[in-house]
Structure formats: C-alpha cells, structure tokens
Amino acid sequence: MSFTLITNGRVLDIETSTAPAADILINQGTIETVAPPGITVPEDARVIDAADRLIIPGLINSHTHGHGSLYKGGGDRWTLELLLNAGPWLTGERTLDHKYLAASLAAAEMLSKGCTAVYDLYVEIPAPTVEGMRAVGQAYHDAGIRAVVAPMIADRTFFQAIPDLVDALPEALRQRIQNTKMTPAASTFDICRRLLDNWTFDRRRITPALGPTIPLHCSDDFLTTAHNLALEYDVGLHMHLAESKIQALSGVRHYGKSLTAHLDSLGFLGPHFTAAHAIWLDHDDITRLANSGASVAHNPGSNMRLGSGIAPIREMLDAGLNVGIGTDGAHCADNQNMFEAMRLTSFASRLRSHDYDNWLCTEEVAALATTGSARALGMGDKIGKVAPGFEADLVLLDLNHLNWLPINDPVNQLIHTEDATAVHTVIVGGDVVVRDGQLLSIDVAKLKSDAQEAIAFLDEENRETRALAEQLERHVGKFCSGLARSPHHVHAMAESSLT
Ligand SMILES: [Zn+2]
C-alpha cells in the first residue's frame, strides 16, 4: 500500500464556487478520502503540505496535436485551409526522435500549465506507423501525463476534399498536386490493427484511439472501417467536424446534406465519438450528436486564431450534448494553455448573444474543462473530479500569487484571472510531476537544445515542400475566401457589417 496525504489545503468545489479546507488521502494513485481536516491516516503516509494552495482537478485537454508543438508561431494570417495546405511541410520528414520530441514538448507545456490528461490526434506523414505511435505514447508515459493517443488517418488529400479547388489552380501547380498519393486504406488499417493488437502501455495512463481526420478527407468505406475497428477494439474515435464554413459548404455539395447528417447516416455517431470544433452545426446536427451520446471538443483559441468561427456551446449544452475544452495543436493555437482555453470559452460565448442568460457562467466553463473533457476522453468515471474513487490528478495553485490577491470568487478567478502562472504542484495518478512550478519528469534544457536542433534539420529537409505550399497559398486562400461568401443557413462568425 502507498498512501499520500495532502493536508492544509483548500479544495475547490466548482458547483458552489467555494473552497473549503479539506484533506485528501490518496491510496495507490486513487483518491480515497476528501474530508474536513484532521482525518486519520496510516503512519507511513507521505505528506504534501498544501498550505496557501487551492486544489483543483487537473485540467483535461480534449483536443490537441502533439506534432504541432515544434511549429508554434508558424504562419500568421492562416485560415484552417491555409494551415492544411502547409501541413506537409509542418509535419514532413520527421524521424522517430522528432516524433517523441514533439510529444514531449507538448506534454511539458501542458503539465507545467496544470493539464494532467490529453486527447492527442497525432499525425505522421505519409501514414501512421506502429513505431511512431509508440514513440508518442512513450513520450507521454515518460512525461507522466495521462493521454489518449489517436493516429490521424485519411484516404483523401486536402486538395481532393474540397470540390473544384484543384481546378482553380494554375496548370503547373495542379500537376504537382496531383502527384501526391495517399497511402492505401488497407495498409493504414493494417497498421492501426497492429497498433491496437500490440498496445504495450498501461491503458489507464496511455490509451489508444483512432482519429479519422475530417469527414471530407475520408471515403465512406474508410469511415465505416474506422468506426467498425473502434467498436471492435472498444477505443475512441475522434474527428474534426464542421470546423470551417468551407468544410460545411463542401459537405453539403459533396454529400447533399450536412457533415453531421452524413456521419449519422453511416452509423458513425455514438458515445465513443468525439467531434472536435463542431462550429458550423445547425439544431438538427446538435440533436443528432446529443442523441447519440457523442462529445464535442471545443477549441476557442484555435477557432479564433484561424478565423473559423465560434461554436454554439450554449445550444449544445441545452440539448444535453457533452462538451469538453481543448487547446488544439500549438501549430494552430500557439500554446497548450488550458487556463487560456477556459477564459476564451467564457469570452467567446459572450460574442454569440446579446442575452446574457445565454453566456456560459464560470462554473459551467470549469465543468467543461474537467468533467466534460473527461467524458470526451472516455474517462468520465475516472478523472475530472476531486472525489473518492477518482484518479488523483490534481493541480495545486499558489494562493500567494498575484492572481489570487485577494480571493473574491474561486471559480470566477480560476476561469477569468488565472493564466497558469500560479501553478505550483501537479500530480497525476498520485505522482508529483511538477513541484514549485518546475517539471520533475522532463529535462527542459535538453528539450530546448533538441527542439532547436530538430527545427534546423526539419526546416532544411522540408524546404522544397514549403516552397510549393507557399506557391499554392495565394490560390488556395483566394478560392476559399471566395467560396466562404456563399450563403449558408448557419452563422458562426462575428462579421462586421461596416465593410
Ligand atoms: Zn485539431
């Protein structure tokens, strides 16, 4: 038996927005007791003094891409489509070491900013490999973060996914694009099956899943195979859904119905399914997702960075749809800060309605980033709460930090004031991974030199691919901004009427 007592702290109660003094007893990584101070504990229990600390459930990132961490700050005025156009050079030519490094970098940032669990859709170009996904799992295992790792898979290129885009390109560029071939679906699924058959990690910590990337990037056969495989192995399915107006419009053109209606008609939706973004949904789409028991991963930082729009979170919650919060990858959100994601979730909800009753209150936002995200990861009964029977995934915030001087309302300050700079201690499954704000599991100095070396190598190796993407950028950008002017019955942009 191995016991840890966290004593002298204040434990956040999200529902009542209070933070009463309480002791927490952890037994072998699981919370056994949460009770007023003075509980009886085994003599050999390790003691963590939490005086002047606010104890919160570890934040849970319901959507990111670990591979993106090497290109934070990449691109400026990129839409989602311009990001996808840049995808080949952002992720190309990576060795196994680079794949491990990118995931380590993401984990280091998440842990030090109070995030204890993550759903990662990790891409390898041209296709996932067993070794690559193992390297990603190993990086998260070594960092000490809890992770669901899904290889991102597809059988169509970005240029095949958007009707008429290829025809809008100059002839020379069109030919170069048409030379790009996707890995055959059978080979991709063979790798996925081998990965799932031989998963070597403790599934309570590092869980496999599948990430068919975007509906339009997958043929119907591909989607059905991915869905069946997920059911066969009882793993999660995670996909970007209706992230941009371009995707919503292309969906109607390609399927004759919305992307969500199409997935529904394939039987794809269900409790194991998490839809990232889900911005361009109508009421019927929200109802379809809610009725199926699916989850949504809301990423307001990425959505604003890429100008994708603002998701209808209030409408989703009213429909009983589960929603978690994510950062998205650092190549499209630039950081992995769940405190910022929570703050933006609150603020973004205020741009969708003049009626303040429709805005998300801070208790709701805190619940989305903990219990909502936990359910999106398929771990709703294990993480996201400071309660007996839950994993001891905890963050201790320093109440001597300026963010907490003075304490007026713990939940309001958690969402609107805290920016991760008061993160003092981070515990995952009872293991302390951050203490005094310092990562214990990762050598950050080595991470720095490895990242600099990797970027020097990758910039050089991807020079030609990048040059092609830069030639394509203007054409893709013009085509898509033209297409985005087409009428659509869903509105999700805070567009100005002055222009
Ligand atoms: Zn994403």
Write the topology of this structure:
Layout: E1 3-11, E2 21-27, E3 30-35, E4 46-49, E5 53-57, E6 59-64, H1 80-91, H2 96-112, E7 115-122, H3 130-143, E8 146-153, H4 158-161, H5 171-178, H6 185-197, E9 206-212, H7 220-233, E10 236-241, H8 245-255, H9 259-265, E11 273-277, H10 283-292, E12 295-298, H11 300-305, H12 313-318, E13 322-325, H13 330-333, H14 338-350, H15 362-376, E14 394-398, H16 410-416, E15 423-428, E16 431-435, E17 438-439, H17 444-461, H18 463-483
Parallel strand pairs: 1-4, 1-5, 6-7, 7-8, 8-9, 9-10, 10-11, 11-12, 12-13
Antiparallel strand pairs: 1-2, 2-3, 5-14, 14-15, 15-16, 16-17
Helix pairs in contact: 1-18, 2-3, 2-17, 6-7, 14-15, 15-16
The structure holds zinc ion.
Can you summarize this structure?
With 499 residues, the protein is an alpha/beta fold.
Fold and architecture overview:
By secondary structure, the chain is α/β, with parallel strands linked by helices. It has a domain of 318 residues: Alpha-Beta Barrel (TIM Barrel), CATH 3.20.20. Helices cover 40% and strands 19% of the residues. The protein has 18 helices and 17 strands. Strands 1, 2, 3, 4, 5, 14, 15, 16 and 17 form a nine-stranded mixed beta sheet that branches. It has an eight-stranded parallel beta sheet with strand order 6-7-8-9-10-11-12-13. Helix 3 links the parallel strand 7 and strand 8. Helix 1 runs antiparallel to helix 18 and helix 2 packs parallel to helix 3. It is globular. The N and C termini lie far apart (67 Å). The model has no long low-confidence stretch (mean pLDDT 97). The structure holds zinc ion. Zinc ion binds next to loops.
